[in-house]
Amino acid sequence: MPVPIEYSYEDTENILVLDELDYDRFEMGRELQQCLASITDEQRKVYDVIMDAVTNDSGGMFFLYGHGGTGKTFLWKTLSAAVRSKGKIVINVASSGIASLLLPGGRTTHSRFGLPIDVHESSTCSISQQSPHAELLIRAKLIIWDEAPMMHRYCFEALDKTMKSILQTDKPFGGKVVILGGDFRQILPVVLKASRQDIVHATINSSPLWNFCRVMKLTKNMRLQSCCSPSNVDEIKEFGDWILNVGNGDVGEDNDGEASIEIPDDMLIGDSEAPFRDLLEFVYPDLLSNMYDRDYFQGRAILAPTNECVESVNDHLMSLLPGEEKVYLSSDSMCRDEHTTEDNAEIYSTEILNTIRCSGVPSHALRIKVSAPVMLIRNIDQARGLCNGTRLQIIRTGIHVLSCKILSGKNIGDMVFIPRMTLIPSNSGLPIKFQRRQFPLIVSFAMTINKSQGQTLSHVGLYLPRPVFSHGQLYVVVSRVKSRGGIKIFIKSDSGELTNVTRNVVYKEVFHRI
């Protein structure tokens, strides 16, 4: 095709760059003015520092540390509008799919930077010189990375090495302005069968990159400003302070990172004949009459520490729904790239593979009913809000696809079709790799605590037949809601009786370098 007369060297055919530039500069300017009109002094200081680095092309690595409600997402929106109003590119990424939906044009870090699933010390991103991804990184003025503390330090180091190579400089992240955000009180990187030292060593503030990082803090809770009556302000402030004390490990008697804490009586399920039923009734009142209401499931969930506890709750609630239960069986096989012998084929028969249950893949027998809430466990279409963690509701059960309605994110109410996919678990604990062809869904009346990170809910029921086992899990649960009236906790002791005491795990050494 002939080149247009007004063609300039800045024009590009790179679809990744064009997507990031697909916005109205004047609309971004108006959005920026609206944001700056309601920005707090604390947020303004952070904004000025970042924009000064972007304007002067001075580069730099920053970490924005703030608990839930301090306005981190608002600040990402303001910074994005400021840079885009000048016609420049901002790359917004998050460590989880749910968190990425809250960012303007957000993507997950793995999809945007080509990070490997299993990272190690010498990992790099799968971005080559002269590739479209490389051009996008070169032209970006600002990179915003939300929920950073839950990612392994090797992910940041892999991006750092890749950008130094692409931009041919030894400056951190190739001299680009990179701002990370998050809360170290929340769940840290998940490292399989790791000790406490291994988990702490895997955090970003244990990386050599942290020496180049400037930490900025947000402390003012923005949720308090939206309250009308003074009594509500006092109540929410008291609840907010208690949540922070749980996150800091300042509640109860600390015993080397683990403390037994008493839960306030108003957060406990009452001592009745059927406390478990009361917990379900609190989170899902009048379930059968409300199950087709679009907003009903959106802000409600029962949280539990392990997949086993979650499955027992989901099975019970599924049995309460009317209609016929449909069972979809998966097709399991060993991966083709496995150099399997006849012995392996006998040991890992199809029947054996069907019994495997591991995180990241649905079970062999997926049991669902029409109107049941489910959760997507794969990134399918980020632009339409279909990513790992998106909650859906089953509308129609077909043979080859499931018709679902989106319950969370910006595309609430949209109808989508979910097909079967071939899923390979990243770590199944087996000496061989296997694949499972199944719908990438799990029932989500209840979900694990780790899966809930990044979500804001109105009604949370915490089901603790066994205590939490990792740093920040209890803090994540109690910080999902805005008021203490939105949470009820069901705790069982080792003897199986109801109790008001549970365990809180906090690795305080994580806070030493902040």
Give the DSSP E fraction (strand runs of 2 or more residues). Answer: 15-25%
Rg for CA atoms: 24 Å
**Form type:** globular
Name given to the CATH homologous superfamily of the largest domain: P-loop containing nucleotide triphosphate hydrolases
Termini separation comes to: 55 Å
Give the secondary structure arrangement, pairings included.
Elements: H1 15-20, H2 25-37, H3 41-55, E1 60-66, H4 72-84, E2 89-94, H5 97-101, E3 107-108, H6 109-113, H7 132-139, E4 140-146, H8 153-167, E5 177-182, H9 196-201, E6 213-218, H10 230-248, E7 253-255, E8 258-262, H11 275-283, H12 287-290, E9 300-304, H13 307-320, E10 326-329, E11 331-334, H14 342-347, H15 350-354, E12 365-368, E13 373-376, E14 391-397, E15 401-406, E16 415-419, E17 421-423, E18 434-438, E19 441-443, E20 446-448, H16 449-452, E21 459-464, H17 473-478, E22 487-491, E23 501-505
Parallel strand pairs: 1-5, 1-6, 2-3, 2-4, 4-5, 9-20, 9-21, 21-22
Antiparallel strand pairs: 7-8, 8-23, 10-12, 11-18, 13-14, 13-19, 14-15, 15-16, 17-18
Helix pairs in contact: 2-4, 3-4
